[in-house]
Design brief:
It contains two helices and five strands, in the order βαβαβββ. With 169 residues, it is α+β, with helices and mostly antiparallel strands. The chain has a domain of 74 residues. The strands form two sheets. A three-stranded antiparallel sheet has the order 2-1-3. Strand 4 and strand 5 form a beta hairpin. The longest helix has 13 residues. The radius of gyration is 31 Å and the shape is elongated.
Length: 169
């Protein structure tokens, strides 16, 4: 009986902790191709990048692709038509998209999830016991500080030290 063979399939899904730009650059380095040449691997459609690989080489290829941030699926050649449907891709203005399975997926890591107008400005904080406030972000901190209490004086004893006597005396 012959050893089963595997294909490696990608859709352009990113692994957590990777940006799209980093994954594209890493994939281009991995395949020794121009960044434009790997663009089709990030289209959202299933693309087979390797075929007829023995199990150990297929696992090594998946590990290499996932090492640069691109989610890869090792698929038996006998089960080529059993791919799950592609995950929905989040839009730039929709931070959370509903998946076909009824769950939720998170937006890509690049960009802000909250629009600039939705960010609340925090009120100045009064620290108990200290007559000071925390300056808002971007303010000038170069002013002179004033204290409401005098600085306490510390008395240090004026000890005189005698020279050490040598053991030879």
């Amino acid at each position: 009986m012959t050893e089963p063979t595997y294909s490696i399939v990608v859709r352009g899904d990113l692994l957590p902790g990777f940006t799209l730009a980093d994954a594209k650059a890493g994939t281009a380095r991995l395949f020794k191709a121009a960044p434009e040449a790997v663009e089709k691997l990030f289209s959202g459609r299933a693309v087979t990048v390797r075929r007829n690989l023995p199990r150990h080489l297929a696992m090594k290829t998946v590990a290499a692709l996932e090492g640069v941030g691109l989610k890869a699926v090792m698929q038996s050649e006998a089960a080529a038509d059993d791919l799950p449907p592609p995950a929905p891709r989040a839009q730039a203005d929709a931070p959370i998209a509903h998946a076909a399975s009824g769950g939720l997926t998170l937006a890509p890591m690049e960009g802000n999830l909250v629009k600039a107008g939705e960010i609340e400005k925090p009120a100045p904080v009064q620290v108990a016991g200290i007559d000071a406030t925390i300056a808002p972000a971007g303010s000038d901190l170069g002013g002179t500080a004033t204290r409401s209490e005098p600085t306490p004086q510390i008395r240090v004893p004026d000890w005189e030290l005698s020279p050490m006597e040598s053991a030879e005396d």
